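Team,

Forwarding the record for the chain on the shared tracking sheet. I've put the sequence and predicted structure together so nobody has to dig through attachments.
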Amino acid sequence: MHITSEQRLDDGVLEREFTLGEIPGTLWTPGSPAPAPLILMAHNNGLPRRASRLVARARHCAASGYVVASIDTPGCGDRPRSAADEQARAALGRATQNGEPIDEILEPLVGSLVERAVPEWRTTLDALLALPETAGPVGYSGWTALGIHLTVAEPRVTAAGFFAGGHVPRAQREEARQVTIPLLLLLQWDDEGNPRQRALDLFDAFGTKEKTLHANLGGHTGTPWFEVEDGNRFFDRHLKK
């Protein structure tokens, strides 16, 4: 892991940009020098790690005593896109603009992102757990489709908070039955791009015996800030025992 820049923020959090081979990432660590649990944080459908909402969540989480890390998914953020990525995103843009169904476009697009991203997240996790400031255990927060596949593949992740606002491919819907760690699912009741019944069916499918659903009125980007604070309390229960 190569640190490319760092700055101490006004809340005491240390923010560092890093690269791990071709993988660009950001690491936020609390002001305390003591080793802390780690939370992996990903934005829905591979949106950039520098997106303002993710950065705000990461900083708040780090200020609460966690090491937080995010990376850009292949073909997203600062990563180069393949011809197939460009074609799929162009088709998605046209369908959205014309008010056409998009599920059959999202299915292979998101599925490909997940399959490519999970091995990189596992490689990143290896590097993060080798840092002196990272003690474990490990949690995951954010993108549901990625989180399902990652938590099934990676036994070091022991608690997860998912956002129900992104497309979840059929393969991950089936895989949800294998998720057995404590889980918190956030749902925006009026999310225009995510039918609530689909999210409720997914919640029912998760195999864990310890799962909680928080639903709030409002559209896709309207998740109340108090859910970030509740998410920290969820991780406190499971990562700071």
